[in-house]
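Progress note, sequence design subtask.
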């Protein structure tokens, strides 16, 4: 026999747990408002509310038949973890690698992904960041339409598969970050509204009614989300969580949910005696997200920096549409500002938003509180064709971008395949089992890009199997030119970052940047080192402001000339001066 519990305040007078086709009544908990509990046989189970249809457990850790099917208990203590010696590592000073389990390999499973961990060890990354792994309808998807926040997508390998991957990564000395979504649930397979007030119409989001963080009943909803987050860190030994779109967490309470969650994670740090952390994806451009709770902030370890991405993207590509417009006016100046001050929009006018946006960091803020990147799943997959910048830029220009990311004061992050300039696209794909929803997603995406001048037939159909197949990495590429050179370049940059502390110094106030917008060159001063980048069409001599002693690494033509370094077009060099 097992004990079954569920929070179901919307149930009028009857809650049952169904196991093996037999229903077993649960009793109201006298000391826990809205909770029902009782004992029943072991096995796959579902709850029935007031004689309604069987529903999966909101706290299910395993949905072997998909998000609409019955739940299965998981004995987390039964998994045999290796004696890896892994005690975790903090985020500052680390390099992060974002990957999508379903397209990292042809098989698209945790076990298949683990077979490529040696590649990541040789690359030199410290953390793998897995895109969301919660269940969603069908087999293929980005994961942001998950509907069971405590469970693991069965086609990837389920709970045991995730544990095997984490265990294997830790044996290799690599930590694991998991991307989780608290701001909404997917449009299909979400059964939470039947149980209780998990959502509220007090706030509205791009996905409809907001998750209930501040309306009546929100105490239990907050505990539900925080419990899910802690379960990943505790039961799966995940090292950190990336929280999706925290700006969409509508919460008017005095203590914001994020502040509450960081407090709970800090308690787990103490009890587990290992480093654990939270990273936010935020569109707010506010230092409050990463300011310690004792100083009035929300206390997260870091947040993604889209401003740095946008500045670097415009500098390398020349694109100027949409939100790139503000950065494209003077892209090298934008790169310089983000490298020295963190945010580009720190109270400045944003033409894309039609208002001023953001606020500045305090002087000498630690740059590791921002993740810096040239490519992410969003910045590739949300393009009409899901095309990577490697399809339009020279290898030299890609190398320039990599150098600016991997010698930055930020916590650098790479997107899978970026390290070798992968030519495969990463497109938007779904596998909705509801035909109406599938068609709505298909037509909605085509309408969205038609507004920007795209022909509907050129936008890939998210439901077409070929769309996901095109997005799978080609692991033969790293053995071919020019991919081999780019892979070697990324390895050298990460090795230099680790060997030369000045190249990872997080003090934004210690970074200086010289640039010439017209000539298209930029030199980043990192202590005695200079990261010299020439994006111009011709060779140029870039000033170092000190005698160059040694070119530590270069991609393209590079030769020191006294207090300058001469670079060919689309070339980059890291020079030791003094």
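Output:
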């Amino acid at each position: 026999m097992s004990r079954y519990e569920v929070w179901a305040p919307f149930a009028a007078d009857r809650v049952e747990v169904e196991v093996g086709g037999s229903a077993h009544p649960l009793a109201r908990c006298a000391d826990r408002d809205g909770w029902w509990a009782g004992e029943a046989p072991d096995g796959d189970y579902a709850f029935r509310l007031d004689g309604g249809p069987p529903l999966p457990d909101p706290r299910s850790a395993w949905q072997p038949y998909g998000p609409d099917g019955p739940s299965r208990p998981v004995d987390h203590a039964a998994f045999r973890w290796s004696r890896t010696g892994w005690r975790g590592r903090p985020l500052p000073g680390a390099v992060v690698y974002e990957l999508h389990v379903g397209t990292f390999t042809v098989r698209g499973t945790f076990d298949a992904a683990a077979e490529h961990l040696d590649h990541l060890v040789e690359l030199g990354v410290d953390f793998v960041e897995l895109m969301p792994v919660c269940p969603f309808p069908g087999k293929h998807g980005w994961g942001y339409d998950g509907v069971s926040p405590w469970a693991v997508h069965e086609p990837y390998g389920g709970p045991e598969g995730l544990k095997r991957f984490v265990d294997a990564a830790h044996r290799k000395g690599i930590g694991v970050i998991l991307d989780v979504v608290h701001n909404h649930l997917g449009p299909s397979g979400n059964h939470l509204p039947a149980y209780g007030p998990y959502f509220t119409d007090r706030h509205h989001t791009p996905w409809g009614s907001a998750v209930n963080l501040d309306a009546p009943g929100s105490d239990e909803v907050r505990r539900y989300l925080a419990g899910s987050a802690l379960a990943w860190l505790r039961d799966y030994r995940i090292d950190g969580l990336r929280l999706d779109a925290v700006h969409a967490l509508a919460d008017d309470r005095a203590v914001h949910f994020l502040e509450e969650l960081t407090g709970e994670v800090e308690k787990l740090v103490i009890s587990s005696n290992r480093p654990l952390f939270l990273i936010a994806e935020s569109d707010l451009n506010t230092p409050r997200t990463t300011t310690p709770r004792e100083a009035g902030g929300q206390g997260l370890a870091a947040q993604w920096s889209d401003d740095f991405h946008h500045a670097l993207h415009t500098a390398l590509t020349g694109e100027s549409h949409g939100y790139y417009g503000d950065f494209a006016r003077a892209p090298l100046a934008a790169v310089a500002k983000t490298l020295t001050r963190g945010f580009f929009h720190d109270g400045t006018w944003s033409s894309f938003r039609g208002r001023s946006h953001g606020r500045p960091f305090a002087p000498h803020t630690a740059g590791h509180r921002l993740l810096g990147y040239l490519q992410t799943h969003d910045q590739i997959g949300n393009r009409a064709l899901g095309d990577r910048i490697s399809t339009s830029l020279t290898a030299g220009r890609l190398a320039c971008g990599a150098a600016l990311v991997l010698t930055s004061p930020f916590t650098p992050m790479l997107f899978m395949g970026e390290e070798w300039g992968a030519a495969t696209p990463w497109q938007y794909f779904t596998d909705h089992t509801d035909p109406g929803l599938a068609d709505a997603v298909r037509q909605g995406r085509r309408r969205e890009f038609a507004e920007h001048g795209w022909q509907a037939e050129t936008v890939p159909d998210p439901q077409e199997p070929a769309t996901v197949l095109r997005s799978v990495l080609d692991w033969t590429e790293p053995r071919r030119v020019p991919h081999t050179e780019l892979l070697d370049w990324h390895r050298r940059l990460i090795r230099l970052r680790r060997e030369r502390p000045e190249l990872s110094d997080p003090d934004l106030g210690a970074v200086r940047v010289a640039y010439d917008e017209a000539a298209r060159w930029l030199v980043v001063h990192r202590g005695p080192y200079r990261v010299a980048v020439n994006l111009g069409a011709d060779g140029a001599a870039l000033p170092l402001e000190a005698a160059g002693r040694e070119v530590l690494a270069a991609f393209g033509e590079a030769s020191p000339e006294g207090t300058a370094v001469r670079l060919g077009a689309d070339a980059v060099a890291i020079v030791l001066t003094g």
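The chain has 15 helices and 26 strands. Work on this subtask will continue into the next period as scheduled.
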